[in-house]
Amino acid sequence: MIVQASMKVPRFAGEGRIEWLTREVPEPGPGQLLMRIEANALCGSDRGQFYGGSGVTPGHEAVGVVAAAGPDTASAVGTRGVIYAKDYCGTCRYCRMNMTSQCTERSSVIGFSEHGGYDPYILIAERMLFPIDDAIPAAEATLLLDIMGTGSRAVKRAGMLHPDIRTVLVSGAGPIGLGLLAMAKLLLGEEVPVAVTDFVPYRLELVKRLNGIPILLSETSLEEGLAASGMRGVDVVMDASGKESARRAGLAALNPGGVLVCVGHGEGLSFRAAEELINVEKAVIGSDYFDYGDLEQNMKLFHAHRSYLSQLITHRFPPDRLQEAYRLFFESGQTGKVIIEHGSA
Questions:
Q1: C-alpha distances in angstroms, 18 versus 122, 213, 334?
Q2: Fewer CB near the last or first residue (10 Å), C or N of the chain?
């Protein structure tokens, strides 16, 4: 594969401005791959970089092709794959517990500590690549990462504490909330009702498409919305909003023995331990990024439910419209998952 010597890359200047500059294409060292990026999905965790500026190129939901391989690697040039955002060692206690996101020996993360998927080419450790079929479109392959990976992780962590999940509530219908809805349906069963709250009608239309139960909080309360859907309470709440008010409302809506899973970053949560947790045996847990090993199972789910999952993608942009894409994503409330698609080399 022919690799150009330089590339046009975005600089996140802050205050919602993206400038463009030229940088040399890096060369892979031992154990590294040079990836030509095909697509990268926007994420809410990029907000601070878009508005506050960033010294590295963001983008941590990337799909690409091996353009060059360094010494001590086995991946062939031309291999396509999704890129697990966090480097990991594979041997520490947490990696052996299938918690590669909590690895204690590696700390680099593409898009945050290292240049990410809005650059045309990036370097990664070979172990971060998960190969995929050439027939899978790059934009759809991004769903294997934060949508399916983060979503499935939260559902599975809830299941570790609750053996009989019959009802679910998702707080917030942004892309992560929609991913939580989709993975709850795929992992728990279509018959399990999943209610989703938001203040934006557009997002709740996407909830309907994914067979969720929309609750528009500008028109009804959570309690009224659940009652209208035939739910007196729920077994699991997954919060994607990051808002303390949503977490507190979700905690109150839990049945005895229920689990609140905090997924969205943002605000905190205070509670009365005896009355709200101990006496009713409720649990509050966090769920972050997923384990590299989860990708194999999620790939099987993707193949079985591709048309269902692809509904989460609502907008696609070329790299030179990156600033426009971010403004639409953060300021309109009128998107699902937004993808930046790089052209062919």
A1: 19, 38, 21
A2: N
| Angle, vertex CA 324, rays to CA 321 and CA 327, nearest 5 | 150
DSSP class of residue 332?
T
Letter for the amino acid at 236?
Answer: V
Which pLDDT score, from 0 to 100, does residue 1 have? 75
CA 42, 46, 47, 52: dihedral to nearest 10 degrees? Answer: -140
Q: Are 89 and 41 in contact (CB under 8 A)?
A: no
pLDDT tens for 185-212 read 999 999 999 999 999 999 999 999 999 9
- CA dist 302 and 272 (Å) reads 41
CB 87 within 8 A of CB 125: yes
Contact 340, 53 (CB under 8 A): no
pTM, to two decimals? 0.95
Could you give all domains of the chain from N- to C-terminal order, each with its CATH number? Answer: 6-135+305-341 (3.90.180.10), 150-286 (3.40.50.720)
Yes or no: say if 266 and 242 are a contact pair by the CB < 8 Å rule: yes
Measured in degrees and rounded to the nearest 5, phi and psi for residue 157 equal -65, -35
